[in-house]
Amino acid sequence: MIRLVRGIGVIFGAVFGYQIADLVHLELLRTGGEGARLGALGLGIALGGVLGWVLAAPVRAWFVRWMGWVLHHLGGIPLRDVLAGVAGLIVGLIVAFLVSIPLLRVPIIGSYIIPLAAVLVFGYLGLHLGIQRREDLLAAFPRLAERLGRDRRTRRAGGAPKILDTSVIIDGRIADICQAGFLEGPLLVPRSVLAELQRIADAGDPLRRNRGRRGLEILQMMQKQFQGMQIYEEGDPRPGEAVDAQLIRLAKTVGGAIVTNDYNLNKVAELQGVRVLNVNELANAIKPVMLPGEELSVHLIRDGKEAGQGVGYLDDGTMIVVEGGKKHIGETLDAVVTSVLQTVAGRMIFARPKVLEKDGAAR
Fold first, then answer.
1. Is the confidence at residue 362, as pLDDT, over 50?
2. Higher pLDDT, 134 or 93
3. What is the pTM of this model?
4. Which of 4, 219, 240, 331 is deepest in the core (most CB within 10 A)?
């Protein structure tokens, strides 16, 4: 492949060198006769061929990387924008062709520079004008607009990619949520998140190391169970860019949502217009609603902040603060709900022992 590319580079370089040598027309070469002109053409062909041989491999590598970058970003653009942009680009190139025809006879720059400049200018303007006026453009094709609109609504309804961050993978509940069928669309794990998990798993602190290994095990399990999960190559990161910033940029690129339980990432992403699915908010939303006067059974495990309080937890992790329950620590106590407090960390339930409620009613 490299030899083929270099051979093509030599051919293009030789042709380009010939055209440059023939285009220069220095007066010194003209006065030197036909031999000097042929020598100049031969020198141009030789230099062009050598230059093509040297630059062929780097140009090919740059072209492959650039095309990969273009395809990666085009994958996250809605189809309606792509169609509108292509239509605008075609119109811009037609205008550039028509404009450059009368200017082809301009000396030196008429054959190369003016057509190239016209293509760049009008192509760029046509592309962006087509995207900006896509609604007007699609209005001329109502069936196509209806089809694209339906695909877009389906995508918004749940088919959009879900991007998993480090915290939600380590948390582990995402595997149960996916197994229950509450997440639709492909699950993307960016390469940067995988690298962060590996750094945590290699940490010197035993607690961090265990958390990182747990996250890698959960990823391995999810990759076996869910075909829609994939490790996503998000391209070269920007210098000094944090993982959270890469997640937000990736979500904007692919039109997806970030799945997390990180409060700060949640707020920053929402401020930048990125949809966020917070596992903690989901857990709080599905907890059973407790109303004042309802009875519950709780096992008290420690004392509370205020004097005489006992603290226990329900099976879903909800904290129960029982007034006068300190003397019952270590016991399972029947209590009556007095009030419910919703906090950022979750829901707290305040209650009193059922025995005290009966005594008060008797009095």
1. no
2. 93
3. 0.48
4. 219
